Records
---
Amino acid sequence: MNKRPLPVTVLSLLLVAAGAVGLVYHLNEINRQHPFQNDFLLIELVRLIAVIGGAYMLRGSNWARWVAMAWIGFHVVVSAFHSLPEFMFHGVLLAVFAYFLFRRQATEYFCARRQE
């Protein structure tokens, strides 16, 4: 059995934590009379995707690392409309995700899980 690389574990837990904290944090933004008036459901969906992606990366699902890349890539695009430091931070985070999720050890871990 191929052991999960430490960077995959750290990034997976980071995704789960960021998603879970975001889910709880944004709950106070719901307008109970008009829940579809703002982007509440979209924001919660993005947070839920982070939790699911991180959890399934811990389980070794190859599709989950692509979800993680799409999730952080989405944040790069969104932050492009905000400040330059935020955009740069998310860009660096995207590079870190790509580096650690597509290294040989990580690829072997995800491919081994697919064959089981």
---
Amino acid sequence: MTWIPPFLLLGAMVGGWEAFARLGGVENYLLPAPSEVAQALVDDRHLLLTDTWVTGREVVLGFALALAVGIAIAIVLHLSPLLRRTIYPIVVASQAVPVIVIAPILVIWFGFGIAPKLIVIALICFFPIVVNTLDGLASVDRAQARMLRTLDASRTDVFRHLEWPSALPYLFSGAKIAVAVAVIGAVFGELVGSDAGLGHAIQIGTAELLTARVFAAVFILSAMAIALFGLVAAVERRAVPWANGGSPESPMSKGDK
């Protein structure tokens, strides 16, 4: 029943929004009522469905790219202290450059296809994956690591049976953050240069004062982010069942079974 209070609060907010939009004397092109947004979802369903497919594909592929690159960077930095001291500050500094500034440059370099969108999404998503995974790899119990070495475990064995399982809960924490903001990267990329997608629909709807359609596109983007977050969380529950216990010994015991 933990879902009841949020839904009650959401219902009250939507009801208040509906009443204000209907009775507050606000023009619908400035603030459409929720019922008008729902009507736009129905009336423009074919357009929005096509745009949702475009943006959804960009988000999934961009997130997958960020996941692969982020995990690879985290492992390399963990295994090489020299590279960590050299590259990690650059990884952190990369987040100081606004993506909205980089996006137009990527369009100039790669054109108006899907490539600039994927790069923008990956740039937004990879940082929490790298940081959380790196912290997870460094969080292992040193006593367990020493015990494995006394049993003649190689560096690869220590990584495979101890460090990587211990890092998985951290990795999924970073992945949940990344997938939730991936839609932002997709919208950034589409606003800069695209002829399809929900970001493009928002841009056109804003220019034509089709505010209800704009709100409908924002609603779909929010639903997409929530759904992807829930999907990653579901995978986490299956992939790291020991994480809920919070026991440092759990990864080892999992591997021993």
